[in-house]
Amino acid sequence: MAPVTTQPGDIKSILAEKGLDRDDPRLVGLLDGVKAADVERALAEPCGRYSFSRLLTLISPAAADFLEPMARQARDLTVQRFGRTIQLYAPLYVSNYCINSCRYCGYNQGHNYPRRRLTIDEAIADADVIAAEGFRHILLVSGEDPKFITADYLCELAGRLGANFSSISVEIYSMSEPDYAKLFAAGIDGVTLYQETYDRGTYGEHHPAGPKSDYDRRLESPDRFASAGMRRIGIGALLGLGNWRTETLAMGEHAAYLMKKYWRSQVSFSFPRIRQAHEVRDEFVRPVSDRDLVQMMLALRLCFADAGIVLSTRENADLRDNLTPLCVTKMSAGSKTSPGGYTGESATKQFEIADNRSPAQIAEMIKASGAEPVWKDWDAAFSQQRG
Ligand code: SF4
Fold this sequence. Notes:
The protein has 387 residues and is an alpha/beta fold. Helices cover 41% and strands 12% of the residues. The protein has a single domain, classed as Aldolase class I (TIM Barrel, Alpha-Beta Barrel). The longest helix has 18 residues, at 244-261. Residues 381-387 have low confidence and may be disordered. Iron/sulfur cluster binds at residues 98, 100, 102, 105, 107-108, 143-144, 212.
């Protein structure tokens, strides 16, 4: 592997110093060395504050026996910081073409199936269905399709979506800072981009070709879109590729770095677990159980009081119902994971969702949990009020 070039204080050097960009046995030793008394001490500290050692303690095997007190603290902290509200959003897939070869993804360029890109009019037709369901926050999703899904395409689409949606975000390929600035000027104010795995070796195995094979370029993407002004920064690891405990530690360091440097933006964590997908064989998956996922979400909440916690329809109804009152701030609902999926002219899906309930049913579930479903983006409403 080529030597990594770092600058003091950049995210590459932060991860490298702590052994978070590789399979470092020292970290496993530190995690295994945490005792029940250490967890009790960590839980007695004021919650919501991040330190590497606190997150390491709460994500350790020893802390797996403390999920109940962690859940109680996480619920209280979330209510204190976010009120009893859960924001709802819907993804709109605009293209399932892709020039990358991610081994875990149905859109891998080597997979053979009919591909589809939506024209602006077709995308608006799907978005109209989403708006009619009540959503005012939309997430535009695409494979890496830079010839068709350009910054200009996204800007034109955002211009037309503005009438129906108060908040538009994207989950697309890594762009340049000037392109992100164009999107921001066109009304797109959030970007979600998962590192997939922070372990360079594992990253290389799963991203053998295409622009996404460049680990460093991907890692530095949130710097580019935050520098371009994006108000909402979404990060995450694809759970099932690496050691979920060390991925959580890397997410914590990445978030702390971004929060310090881009303090005007809000950082959110997502927790995508690998799902079954077209032509994907799952022999490489390192399973992350429901309990592991819950521990990961609670530990991050207890270290980052103001971070958004996003839970998608990748997870099943039972788990989503149980997690909703604890720490979640944002959920997708009624998701279609293929271009044209909302108007019925569906193409191949990126992955199968696990919670098939309608947006209205999800809203009812949120109300039953004692919270209020929010269809509009509160950040956007707040910044408009501030003028
Ligand atoms: S994960 Fe994204 S970049 Fe990779 S093959 Fe799928 S759509 Fe393309």
